[in-house]
Design goal:
This protein is α+β, with helices and mostly antiparallel strands. The protein contains 8 helices and 7 strands. The termini are far apart.
Length: 209
């Protein structure tokens, strides 16, 4: 299908509501705007969060963050911290936060089909005591992301049920897709040995902290 073949574009809120209807009162009220005991319990068990940001130009990015459960630290009911572990040094998330502090977080817990959505304002910080408290293998993160919570609520499980995400029978064998090194090799048409690139990716995966 080409873009020319796409039908009607819904361009106003009124047109959208005419199609999907209005949300129930409970749906609107469930945003409590803070991290209560239920949100804290969810975050404490979450080893994975998706971080959504956008830059000054409005271009959006979603980046994964993962670590042992509890890596996301709740300081109080309106503040949480994410350690910035070693990555590819693109710093898309951090750069976006510097340009535009609005962030959206989606916390996942393996085996739990509901998710926790947290939205707010973020800043990139370098506080020695805070960073030291989040060290792993005696290696503290270089930076951290502090989020001032503005919205927080549990999201229902319909998407996960449709996706069967935690269903072992729906898991895809890794061999059904090319390796990361193979994909990069093909996409960038690199002038190097594929085996060398494969070894480089494997070595990079060993340096988690």
């Amino acid at each position: 299908m080409t873009t020319d073949a796409i039908g009607e574009v819904i361009a106003t809120r009124e047109a959208l509501r005419a199609i999907v209807g209005e949300p129930a009162d409970l749906v609107m009220r469930k945003d409590i705007g803070r991290l209560d005991e239920h949100c804290r319990a969810f975050i404490a068990r979450s080893p994975f969060v998706l971080v959504g940001t956008s830059g000054a130009d409005g271009f959006c990015d979603v980046s994964p963050r993962g670590d042992a459960p509890g890596f996301a630290r709740v300081l109080d009911e309106r503040t949480l911290v994410l350690p910035e572990r070693p990555g590819n040094k693109r710093t898309d998330t951090l750069t976006n936060i510097i340009d535009n502090p609005q962030v959206g977080l989606l916390f996942l817990v393996p085996g739990v089909e509901e998710t926790l959505r947290v939205n707010g304002r973020a800043r990139v910080v370098r506080d020695s005591a805070l960073l030291a408290s989040m060290a792993v293998n005696n290696k503290p993160p270089l930076l951290a992301i502090v989020v001032e919570v503005r919205e927080s609520y549990l999201h229902c499980a319909k998407a996960f049920k449709r996706a069967r995400l935690w269903d072992a029978d729906s898991q895809v064998l890794r061999t059904e897709l090319p390796s990361l090194a193979r994909i990069i090799y093909d996409q960038l048409q690199l002038d190097c040995e594929l085996d060398d690139l494969e070894r480089g990716v494997a070595e990079g995966y060993k340096k988690l902290y």
